[in-house]
Design goal:
- The chain contains five helices and five strands.
- It has 135 residues and is of the alpha+beta class.
- It has a single domain, classed as Intergrase catalytic core (hpI Integrase, Chain A), CATH 1.10.443.10.
- The chain has a three-stranded antiparallel β-sheet with strand order 1-2-3. The protein has a two-stranded antiparallel ribbon with strand order 4-5.
Length: 135
């Protein structure tokens, strides 16, 4: 949800750290990235995401962080077949198979056509169709 609503790149999601996220439940959240592709001056970039009534990135983030009690380190982590959450961050090469698996479980037709960039492109398409600025 966070990747879609903010149009993040896959590598940005896999590098997101708990210490760089601030959340106000019911209001919104901000995510700081020390390095992004568009940051030409290497100052880092902060992105905000609002709380929404449906498919809320704030609620999703809080649920994800609470279940395994993540307090520091990488936000998005792998989960082994026994349900144990890894301490290391999710590897960028794991993102596409994970996304496709989630889309297949959700009943999306042809999940193999999606990639990590689909979150970014999907948000841009949705924003344009709904008169929302992509900024």
């Amino acid at each position: 949800m966070l990747g879609f609503w903010r149009g993040f790149r896959g590598d940005e999601l896999t590098r997101l750290r708990a210490k760089h996220v601030e959340v106000v439940p019911g209001q919104g959240m901000s995510c700081y990235f020390p390095l992004t592709k568009g940051d030409r001056q290497l100052k880092g970039s902060t992105f905000k995401a609002p709380a929404l009534s449906r498919l809320c990135p704030v609620d999703g983030y809080l649920a994800w962080m609470t279940a395994p009690q993540i307090r520091e380190g990488a936000v998005f982590r792998s989960i082994d077949r026994w349900g144990h959450v890894n301490d290391d961050g999710l590897h960028i090469d794991s993102l596409v198979p994970l996304l496709r698996s989630i889309l297949k479980e959700a009943g999306v037709v042809s999940p193999e056509l999606y990639s990590g960039h689909s979150l970014r492109r999907g948000f841009a398409t949705w924003a344009s169709a709904n008169g929302v600025s992509t900024r």
